[in-house]
Write a structure and sequence with these properties.
It contains 7 helices and no strands. It is mostly helical. The protein is flat, with a radius of gyration of 22 Å.
């Protein structure tokens, strides 16, 4: 049950940060061609989202400021999270797997996940506070539609013939060649 929620949190955060990234790139100062705005060019496909939310220039500036303030900390947090995951994997698959080391690495990973989740949640809260009631309603509706779309995709994936064959508990064992 925790995995689907974690998957949703990752997708929601990605969606929110792409919104922030697009907003920041859209309202960059004229003549200020940065790596951010160049990298955002392909992501401008989310421009309809910006129109649907009808963000004001002040809101876009606030969101950009929030993103810039948290960008470094989020990057470091994600780096720590990945390092903790690698350390746990290395401990599990080492030649001499030591249970106490694995326990410690699991604890470190858990702490890194908690810190990263907290930082993301507080950043999202700050962005949420920038939106007015109508924008928040539109954003929630879009998120609900996105969740439904993702559920439908998972249902389709789970019902694929290949998936059924791979996970079928009644799959017959291969027969042995006849003895001669």
């Amino acid at each position: 049950m925790k995995e689907p929620m974690n998957n949703f949190a990752v997708k929601f955060t990605s969606f929110l940060f792409s919104l922030i990234f697009i907003a920041a790139a859209t309202f960059a100062a004229p003549g200020q061609e940065s790596q951010e705005s160049a990298a955002a060019a392909p992501a401008r496909g989310n421009a309809p989202l910006l129109r649907l939310l009808n963000l004001t220039p002040d809101q876009l500036a606030q969101i950009r400021r929030i993103r810039q303030e948290n960008q470094g900390e989020l990057r470091l947090s994600l780096q720590r999270l990945r390092q903790a995951q690698r350390a746990l994997d290395e401990a599990i698959y080492s030649e001499t797997a030591d249970e106490s080391v694995i326990e410690e690495r699991a604890r470190q990973l858990s702490e890194a996940q908690a810190a990263h989740t907290r930082l993301r949640a507080l950043t999202e809260l700050r962005v949420r506070r920038v939106l007015n009631a109508q924008q928040l309603k539109v954003f929630r509706n879009l998120q609900m539609q996105r969740r439904e779309h993702n559920r439908a995709q998972r249902r389709n994936l789970n019902s694929s013939p290949l998936r059924r064959r791979l996970t079928s508990p009644t799959r017959p064992a291969p027969s042995a060649p006849p003895d001669r």
